[in-house]
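Quick review question:
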C-alpha cells in the first residue's frame, strides 16, 4: 500500500470515529438526564456522566495538562505513522487512536469534561471514543507484533 492510500484510510477511520463519537455524545447530553440510568440490556445501561479526568477519572482537574499530554502522544503517533505508513494495517490503529483522542479532547475543550454514556457492571462509564482508543491500542500492538515477527524472519512466506 502506498503512503497516500494509508493516510487516506487513516483519515477515513478518524473521521468516522469522530463523527459517531460526537453524535452519540450529543444524543446522550440531550436525551439522558445527568446521573440517571436507563437499562438497555442486563449488562448495559445508558447513563450521562461527566468525566473530568483521564481514564476512570484519574487526574481530574488537570485539564490543561491532560490535553497537553494527549497532544504530545498524538504527535508521536502521527510521526511514527508518517515514517511507517507502508506497514500493513498501520492505518487502522492510527485512525482509531487519533479519532478517539480528538473526540475526547473536543469534549474537554468545549465542556471541561468528557461525556460518558455507556455503563457495564463493574466498569466505569465510557463512550465510543474510549472504545476506539481501546481497539486502537489492541490493533497497534497486533500490527507492531506482526511487523516484528516479519522482520525477524524475512524469508517466511506470508500466511
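Suggested answer, residue by residue:
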Amino acid at each position: 500500500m502506498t503512503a497516500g492510500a494509508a493516510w487516506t484510510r487513516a483519515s477515513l477511520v478518524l473521521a468516522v470515529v469522530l463523527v459517531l463519537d460526537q453524535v452519540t455524545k450529543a444524543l446522550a447530553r440531550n436525551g439522558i438526564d445527568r446521573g440517571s440510568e436507563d437499562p438497555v440490556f442486563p449488562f448495559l445501561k445508558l447513563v450521562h456522566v461527566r468525566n473530568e479526568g483521564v481514564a476512570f477519572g484519574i487526574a481530574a482537574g488537570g485539564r490543561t495538562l491532560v490535553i497537553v499530554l494527549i497532544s504530545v502522544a498524538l504527535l508521536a503517533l502521527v510521526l511514527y505513522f508518517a515514517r511507517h505508513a507502508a506497514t500493513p494495517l498501520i492505518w487502522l490503529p492510527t485512525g482509531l487512536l487519533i479519532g478517539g483522542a480528538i473526540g475526547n479532547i473536543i469534549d474537554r475543550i468545549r465542556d471541561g469534561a468528557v461525556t460518558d454514556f455507556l455503563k457495564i457492571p463493574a466498569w466505569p462509564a465510557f463512550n465510543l471514543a474510549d472504545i476506539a482508543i481501546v481497539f486502537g491500542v489492541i490493533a497497534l500492538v497486533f500490527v507492531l507484533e506482526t511487523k516484528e515477527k516479519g522482520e525477524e524472519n524475512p524469508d517466511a512466506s506470508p500466511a
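Why it works: The chain is about 60% helix and 10% strand. The first strand starts at residue 37 and ends at 41.
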